[in-house]
Design goal:
alpha+beta; two-stranded antiparallel ribbon; 2 helices; 2 strands; 96 residues
Length: 96
């Protein structure tokens, strides 16, 4: 990997940590990013970004990408939420 590309990736990791600091998953309420690996802003070094994040559409419309409709969540929490929604819908359909 080119040195310039590596530097850019490190900067993007720093930016992600700064922008997501303190933000929590709306489902499990745990931090989106952990800072287990220490890093100092400005050194072009950063902890790896947790790649298991995804967008949740609050109103269920996957074509509505308005910033107010999107919530950043852990992928596992997002999948579990929708699995519960599908199970609830199946139970309601079976009861009817």
């Amino acid at each position: 990997m080119r040195r310039g590309t590596r530097r850019e990736l490190h900067k993007l990791r720093e930016i992600a940590h700064v922008l997501l600091a303190g933000r929590r998953c709306p489902f499990c309420k745990t931090p989106l990013l952990t800072t287990e690996n220490t890093y100092k802003v400005g050194e072009s070094r950063g902890a790896p970004v947790n790649a298991d994040l995804t967008w949740h559409h609050k109103d269920g419309d996957h074509y509505n990408d308005a910033p107010t409709n999107l919530a950043l969540t852990h992928d596992r929490c997002h999948r579990a939420y929708h699995a519960r929604q599908r199970a609830r819908a199946r139970r309601l359909a079976a009861a009817a």
